[in-house]
Automatic annotation (TrEMBL):
Top-rank taxon, per record: Eukaryota
Protein function: One gap junction consists of a cluster of closely packed pairs of transmembrane channels, the connexons, through which materials of low MW diffuse from one cell to a neighboring cell.
Organism: Hucho hucho
Pfam family, one: Connexin
Protein name: Gap junction protein
Taxonomic lineage: Eukaryota, Metazoa, Chordata, Craniata, Vertebrata
């Protein structure tokens, strides 16, 4: 089915910059989607078109009926679903690596926390994953539903009339469709839980946030120092003035006493 190593390496980078719920989502993606799709599901759909039989010998009728019954193969649809759902993670890990690189330039060996721009990018990538997930589930429902019927009746041209076509392994394929649908629902649930977790974490952080000690704190400290210096200078000036005034008053009283002695 192809080499998944490139996508695996990318998602390993995502794992380093995700929350606990995000790591659970990656586990679900690897084990219950990529692994199952690459091992069991491909064998179930391997004989999909070759064993699709219609009760007619009209040339081309069987092909057009198969195209009407299955506009796109389930395997290819699920591969596209995995790629589209993983694309927001690719965008996020690119931004996360760039963010960590910039933080390392400013602060060496300091782990970048999930906040600010990085947090907004992380939430956006979860939202896009959810939208792609819902889109593919709805698309699968409108294409061929969530159940494979053993009998499909077709009346497209060039079929001479309504013909009966028979699908191979309908029950087994239905089981796999329901399983992949359940995995998609689990992924959606994890996305909603992760967004709720980040929202509650942000709310708790806002309510428990200590008073700012950055530039505003430094400004208040400088203002307090300025007030202290002004007060000290004022007290020093007043004390010097009072001492000088007291000394001047003593000299004035002494001169008055001498003047009175001369008059007497």
């Amino acid at each position: 089915m192809g080499d998944w190593s490139f996508l695996g390496n990318i998602l390993e980078e995502v794992n380093e910059h995700s929350t606990v719920i995000g790591r659970v989502w990656l586990t679900v993606l690897f084990i219950f989607r990529i692994l199952i799709l690459g091992t069991a599901a491909e064998f179930v759909w391997g004989d999909e078109q070759s064993d699709y039989v219609c009760n007619t010998q009209q040339p081309g009728c069987e092909n057009v009926c198969y195209d009407e019954a299955f506009p796109i193969s389930h395997i290819r649809l699920w591969v596209l679903q995995i790629i589209f759902v993983s694309t927001p993670s690719l965008v996020y890990v690119g931004h996360a690596v760039h963010y960590v690189h910039m933080e390392e330039k400013r602060k060496e060996r300091e782990e970048a926390e999930l906040e600010g721009t990085l947090l907004r990018t992380y939430i956006c990538h979860i939202i896009f994953k959810t939208l792609f997930e819902v889109g593919f589930v709805v698309g699968q429902y409108f294409l061929y539903g969530f159940r494979i019927l053993p009998l499909y009746q077709c009346s497209r041209w060039p079929c001479p009339n309504t013909v009966d076509c028979f699908v191979s392994r309908p029950t087994e394929k239905t089981v796999f469709i329901i399983f992949m649908l359940a995995v998609a629902c689990v992924s959606l649930f994890l996305n909603f839980v992760e967004i709720s977790h980040l929202g509650l974490k942000k709310i708790r952080f806002v309510f428990r946030k200590p008073p700012p000690q950055t530039q505003g704190g430094q400004g208040d400290e400088g203002q307090n120092k300025l007030v202290f210096y002004k007060t000290a200078f004022f007290v020093l000036f007043v004390s010097i003035y009072l001492k000088a005034n007291k000394k001047k008053k003593g000299h004035f009283q002494q001169d008055s006493y001498r003047t009175e002695e001369v008059i007497i």
